[in-house]
Amino acid sequence: MNSGMAEKILKYLDENNEVNTLKLASILNEDHQKIIGTLKSIQAHGDLVVAEPINEKNIELTEEGKLVARQGSHEANIYKAVPEAGIAQSELMKLSNGKVGFSKAMSNGWIFVDKSVNPPVIKKKVPDIKDIAQEHLQQIEAGNHSSITDKEKAEYKKRKLIQEIVIKSFLLKKGPEFSTTLTKLETDLTSDMLLSGNWKDLKFKEYNFDALGVPPVTGCLHPLLKVRTEFRQIFLEMGFSEMPTNNYVENSFWNFDALFQPQQHPARDAHDTFFISDPQFSYTFPEDYLSRVQSVHSKGGYGSQGYRYDWDLKEAQKNLLRTHTTAVSARMLYKLAQQKEFRPVKWFSIDKVFRNETLDATHLAEFHQVEGVIADYNLTLGDLIGVFTEFFKKLGITELEFKPAYNPYTEPSMEIFCFHPGLGKWIEIGNSGMFRPEMLLPMRLPENVRAIAWGLSLERPTMIKYGFNNIRDLTGPKVDLEMVQRSPICRLDK
Ligand code: PHE
């Protein structure tokens, strides 16, 4: 606070007993607003002054009124523009404010229409005029309008040359705690004040409950994680439990071989998969399971012919960044099969996967997959369709269509399409299928146990939900961090 100013005000009040803040502003040559601000801080110190609010009505010139005060009234300007010989009315109308000026000059009896000539012309009717409107407005501008009648003022107001304003000020008087100096206000109650007891004599600053406050610094979830929270909630509501996905580094065995994906499959190429160079290989595998996987690939079994090629252990040992979360599902199903007694399961996972993609507006080299798996006796494709229908219904998606597809590990396989009302078209949202016997039986799951599964990306629904056209606005080095703070929480069914 400007305590110099506060003390000037108090000193003036001490000598004069009372003063209006407007008058004080002109005496101290200060802006009135500043005087009011200082008054507020004086009041924070207690009842030093009594401030009685005063609302004074006043009039001031409008922009048009100021013009008239400077350049004359519209009617006077019309009068001045009329030459001795007369002028066509249309010429006068071209002047600024010609229309009002003309009719005022006519009703004042300053000009007339001479119809004795053809076409008629406008001529002066009186040799001289007095521009009273201009004089009045100049007086109002100078703050001296006692000689102007209320009727005249009403007329100028109607012509929008003047307007009424309310000037707010305060009449200041000495208060019960008047003093010419301000004591410093304490902002904190300290332990010293409590111990010494001097808190009783100190003055404390009042709380300002209208202060805007400092915006709290908080963490906030990225839109992808907001959508993940919502997906997770849906799975949990449907009785699914979450699989552990905390291993981005996987080996080819679990990522591909266990899923009956042949070693020559193009997805197992360095063009599609990020292989790890250090450590390059994994060596610990469940030995007998590994040999059953080798055998189903190379020779077949369980009613299948297999792929009939020389399965290479080295290829299965290669480490990589997992290309899909189905690697996690494979590990989990194998673990389930090792239990003494089979029990049905409903599992889900939502986490990162990595692919050696060419980056563009809709593809990144790392993205998230949402995956659901159910294993139970005698499940059918009908169960799979039933579960999705329920799952997607909770996302607000009710129109689904399926298209036959191919995955090495599922048969049958279906791509899932949904109708997007916003985009007005069918879009692919996921992939699904029933895990093949060549995948499940080497794990030693009971013969009549079927596993149905589906997967979708987390990025696609997030982009649709938050209106991103470019995936790089969502993740990567160009992300606007404020976007992360601004994005609202996600409700998928709304
Ligand atoms: N793993 C598949 C993919 O990466 C998705 C999928 C999951 C398909 C489960 C079928 C069953 O696209």
TrEMBL record:
Its cofactor is Mg(2+). Residues 226-477 form the Aminoacyl-transfer RNA synthetases class-II family profile domain. PROSITE patterns: AA_TRNA_LIGASE_II. It catalyses: tRNA(Phe) + L-phenylalanine + ATP = L-phenylalanyl-tRNA(Phe) + AMP + diphosphate + H(+). Keywords: Aminoacyl-tRNA synthetase, ATP-binding, Cytoplasm, Ligase, Magnesium, Metal-binding, Nucleotide-binding, Protein biosynthesis. Gene3D superfamilies: 1.10.10.2320, 1.10.10.2330, 3.30.1370.240, Bira Bifunctional Protein, Domain 2. InterPro entries: aa-tRNA-synth_II, aa-tRNA-synth_II/BPL/LPL, Phe-tRNA-synth_IIc_asu, Phenylalanyl-tRNA_Synthase, PheRS_DBD1, PheRS_DBD2, PheRS_DBD3. GO terms for cellular component: cytosol; phenylalanine-tRNA ligase complex. GO terms for molecular function: ATP binding; metal ion binding; phenylalanine-tRNA ligase activity; tRNA binding. It is found in: Cytoplasm. Its main location: cytoplasm. Its EC number is 6.1.1.20. GO terms for biological process: phenylalanyl-tRNA aminoacylation. It holds the Pfam family PheRS_DBD1. Belongs to the class-II aminoacyl-tRNA synthetase family. Phe-tRNA synthetase alpha subunit type 2 subfamily. Tetramer of two alpha and two beta subunits. This is phenylalanine--tRNA ligase. It comes from Rhynchophorus ferrugineus (Red palm weevil).
